[in-house]
Write a structure and sequence with these properties.
The complex is a heterodimer of chains A (567) and B (193).
Chain A: H1 11-16, H2 21-51, H3 65-101, H4 109-128, H5 159-163, H6 166-194, H7 207-238, H8 252-286, H9 293-307, H10 322-334, H11 336-350, H12 359-382, H13 384-390, H14 394-424, H15 430-456, H16 477-508
Helix pairs in contact in A: 2-3, 2-4, 2-16, 3-6, 3-7, 3-8, 3-14, 4-6, 6-7, 7-8, 7-9, 8-9, 8-12, 8-14, 9-11, 12-14, 12-15, 14-15, 15-16
Chain B: H1 3-8, H2 17-46, H3 60-83, H4 92-117, H5 126-158, H6 162-192
Classes of the chains: A mainly alpha (567), B mainly alpha (193).
Chain lengths: 567, 193
Amino acid sequence: MEQLTHHKKSFFSQYIFSTDHKVIGIQYFVTGMVMAAVGGFLAYVFRYNLAFPGAKIPFFGELSAQQYNEFITCHGMIMVLWVAMPILISALGNLIIPLQIGADDMAFPTLNMLSYWFFVVSCIVLLASFFVPGGASSGGWTLYPPLSANAYRNTNPDFWSALFSGNSMMILAVALEIVSMLMGGINFLVTSINMRAPGMTPFRVPILVWFLNIASLDFMFSVGPLIAGAVMLLLDNVIGTGFYDPARGGDPILFQHLFWFFGHPEVYVILLPSLGAMAEIISVFSRKPIFAYKTIVYMALISSVLAVMVWAHHQFVSGIDPRMATFFSVGTIIISIPFAGIFLSYMATLWGGSIRFSVPMIWALGFIGLFLIGGLTGLFLGSNSFDIYVHGTYFVIAHFHYTLFPIVFFGGFAAFYYWFPKFSGKTLNDTLGKIHFWLTFFSFNATFFVLFFNGLAGQHRRINDYAMFPSLMQEPYITFEKISTIGTIVLILSQFIFLYNFINSLIRGKKAENNPWNAATLEWQTQSPPPHGNFSVPPVVYNGPYDYSMPDRAEDFIPQNVQSEKK
Amino acid sequence: MDATISATIPQRKIISNGMIAMVFFIAAEAMFFAGLISAYIVNRSVADAMPVIQQPRLPIEITAINSLILILSFVTLFLFSKKYKTESKSFFLLYITIIFGAVFIGVQGIEWVNLLHFGFSTSSSIYGAFFYTIIGAHAVHVIAGLIILLYLSLSLKKDKSLESVKNKIAICSLYWYFVVSVWPILYVLVYLT
């Protein structure tokens, strides 16, 4: 076996062009964090501008209307495709899947490395688009034509300047990112199907691995139409076809369908890994087997099928047949049933458990509480009659951030605090982790809760300065904007606590035990950090992943690779 | 399961890693074509007249013959994968497949040059845009398929293990089968209706 030969490697092949899944996962995580800093800075700039229009912004200067449009567009794209995807799918998947199924590495290590470098190139293309003539893409993060097609921007560029315009570069960056995620997704699926340790039957696989695979399947099924739509948009931009130009027989709504056919399942692609990590954490810190394991898996499968059937609920105001709108409304509301099932299973796991409020656990509980608000406001928006009223307002912004922010950051931080000891071999500072949680929790709510009211009052999200619309900008909504901006600033500042804790623990942290949380899954049964090849002895699996509360044992759990005395 | 036994049994893979990867990849590719085709159908259903009256007609007959050549390459590759033996190393049918694929691409290229010459381009009408995008996307896949088959012919020469050879042939030919199977759908949709 290959992993047993520990030949010495140069710095480059060990840390830069590494094929080890753990190194690649950490690379994805760090790159995602860097992009999150970029996206967060953009958010800070335009939030500041909204509360104090025309003011000079600290660390930036004045924000023009064109820049405002660029910043909101790139903030959205960066946070969804360059932060959520790499951290929740690529980093989590790369780090966890081989360890939890007891494999030595991914099925295709070289493809895995290529996938990361495609991702790096896509980041560079995206960031470079800020510096091309005309600026970055500025038509909103959904890239709707005509705003995302150069022909409509009163310019008639030649081929090369069209190719190096903000819009085309955004499309190219998205394309590269999709290529990278496709490689990753195929790798996850093949690894989970073929490389499981002996005894790791499908229903002994931890829920996180199930969810990562269902998310990958959903991604691969839904991404094709987006590629088709993006190719057509790129051709519109660069060689002058008229796919989305009504004057030439095209149809801009077509892009909306192709985009949202991917865009809606994408929400579940991001949600499922995060929910999967919550299942691990909640079960471990409640010291109880997860409630209704199989039901959770089946619910996720059902939701992934429903996810590709509800996309047009994003288009209730773009001229949709009312009969179709009703169909999509009903579908949207039905999709909350499987997720309600999953959430109730998590609550039932907590019920009667011996709960330990460790740092990962409070992040996980924060995730559940906040996502509930996001999910419930989603029911309002799913109904087309209500959506027509609030479409494009801050109500949608607040709803969206109450779903995506808990998924990416609360879920992500829960997973970070949970698995950090495993991959670094060091222990994080608990007090700083708790301060980080409470500051993030309150400032997040301050940022977005008030925006529900601004949205219901009719404020629109794409207006950078309300000087022209004084009727939309009265008290208390002016104060609300300011509260939201102050919340954003505190939110960003409190991440420095996390950064300090992260770096300080890496350098000076206490050495972590192999299994600090007394967890049963396989990744905790090897060293911290796991050696190259993951397990010194290839594991054999005898138990389910959540065998806690075992009364007849010294510890209250049975690791998956330990045979119990009597079955 | 007994610990000593289960630890010594090597993992049995029912389907090889490469085959599963190729199946998922082809599924994603199929969705890509589904996106293009549905865009085309939706656009046609609301267009006034398509193909546009003033535009040149597409070469239906020569493309029909060309389609037959592509479908023949399916058959030759299938026969190759059934008959190939590691001892004899007869690549005749594989080379025939590659030549058929190359002829298909060549004839398509000549057609494109002619059409452009007659003033049928991506920006002359939305029909032209769809024609070049859909048929072009397929052509890119055929070229990718040819590269894969060339790689197969080179790597088979070195490979001596029967299992690995069978696996390689199965994976590479699956991609070619996909590329060929998409074509009749595109031909009927774009050229005939």
